[in-house]
């Protein structure tokens, strides 16, 4: 067998360097300094050098770019037929979905977290704003990036919707369907977070006004009345909150929420006498109470 002499090894090494140089300067012709650095490492560590992170980091960057592009595609998909449609999931469905998502972000491994975020963003991400805000501070930078991108895109869409709604609002204050959608957009924008106090306060005042028109346009809308009491309490408008609670009781005397709204109001007003009156009215009413309402009644009855 013919033995290899040093000159043959030198020739192979030169051929390897030439081939590597051609590859790097063609692959990275837009960044000659990067090509030179890579060639230097390839020359210093023949063949093995290609296994260094320097050589597969670029591929990972391209992979991340692809994932981000896929994410943006999901975020910009708008399959809603109704231009005023805001939410399609019930509160029960949202609770069932949000709990596993929160657990996935806290417990699962990085791959599962990222997959969870992608699966979440394939849906209507506005339903999961609280989860997204939690994911923004996740220790995994890629998960956090997805969440930030999603929140920014959601707020961009909501801001665009708010502009459209505000223009039409002047001529559609008797359109219950429009007002319900407008209220939903305002609530989602407030839920998106990262708002300064002045902006949040302005949105709450706008929501209170929209809800008032919604109640007038559709007296049978329980949701409008319930939200009206809540937002007026948040604003500290106790007279308006009481008026809304009284109207809610008049129109929906067979709903436990009407009694609970009055109890909540009088608790905020620190009026124990009127609170107890509302509590007794609930206990004596023919309303079939939910488990949560029963627990509340028992708690305050024991403390009375």
Write a concise synopsis of the structure shown.
The chain is mainly α and 304 residues long. The chain has helices spanning 6-27, 32-44, 53-75, 91-107, 110-121, 129-136, 141-169, 176-191, 197-217, 222-235, 238-251, 256-268, 272-284, 291-303.
Structure description:
- The chain is mainly alpha-helical and 304 residues long.
- The protein has 14 helices and no strands.
- It has helices at 6-27, 32-44, 53-75, 91-107, 110-121, 129-136, 141-169, 176-191, 197-217, 222-235, 238-251, 256-268, 272-284, 291-303.
- The protein is elongated and about 105 Å long.
- This is HPt (Histidine-containing phosphotransfer) domain-containing protein.
In total, how many beta strands? 0
Order of helices and strands: HHHHHHHHHHHHHH
Taking pLDDT < 50 over at least 5 consecutive residues as the criterion, the unreliable ranges are 56-65, 70-99
Content of β-strand: under 5%
Distance between the termini: 103 Å
Instruction: Based on Cα principal axes, name the global outline.
Output: elongated
Number of domains: 3
Number of helices: 14
**Biggest β-sheet: count, sense, barrel?**
none
Q: Roughly what is the average pLDDT, rounded to an integer?
A: 76
Binned, the helix content reads over 70%
Structural class by secondary-structure content: mainly alpha
Radius of gyration: 30 Å
């Amino acid at each position: 067998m013919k033995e290899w002499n040093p000159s043959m090894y030198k020739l192979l090494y030169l051929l390897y360097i030439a081939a590597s140089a051609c590859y790097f300067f063609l692959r990275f012709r837009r960044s000659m300094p990067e090509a030179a650095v890579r060639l230097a490492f390839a020359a210093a560590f023949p063949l093995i050098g290609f296994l260094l992170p320097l050589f597969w980091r670029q591929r990972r960057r391209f992979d991340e770019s692809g994932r981000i592009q896929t994410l943006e595609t999901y975020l910009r998909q708008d399959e809603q037929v109704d231009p005023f449609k805001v939410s399609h999931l019930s509160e029960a469905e949202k609770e069932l979905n949000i709990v596993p998502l929160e657990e996935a972000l806290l417990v699962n491994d990085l791959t599962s977290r990222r997959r969870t975020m992608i699966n979440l963003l394939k849906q209507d991400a506005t339903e999961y704003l609280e989860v997204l805000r939690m994911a923004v501070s996740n220790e995994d930078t890629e998960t956090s990036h997805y969440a930030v991108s999603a929140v920014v895109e959601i707020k961009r869409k909501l801001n665009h919707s708010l502009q459209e709604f505000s223009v039409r609002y002047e001529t559609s204050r008797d359109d219950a369907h429009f007002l319900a959608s407008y209220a939903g957009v305002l609530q989602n924008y407030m839920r998106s977070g990262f708002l300064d106090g002045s902006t949040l306060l302005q949105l709450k005042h706008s929501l209170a006004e929209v809800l008032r028109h919604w109640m007038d346009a559709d007296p049978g809308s329980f949701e409008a009345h319930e939200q009206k009491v809540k937002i007026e309490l948040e604003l500290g408008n106790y007279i308006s909150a009481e008026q809304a609670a009284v109207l809610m009781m008049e129109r929906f005397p067979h709903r436990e929420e009407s009694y609970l709204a009055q109890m909540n109001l009088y608790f905020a007003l620190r009026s124990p006498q009127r609170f107890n009156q509302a509590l007794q009215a609930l206990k004596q009413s023919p309303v079939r109470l939910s488990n949560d309402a029963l627990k509340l009644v028992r708690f305050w009855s024991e403390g009375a």
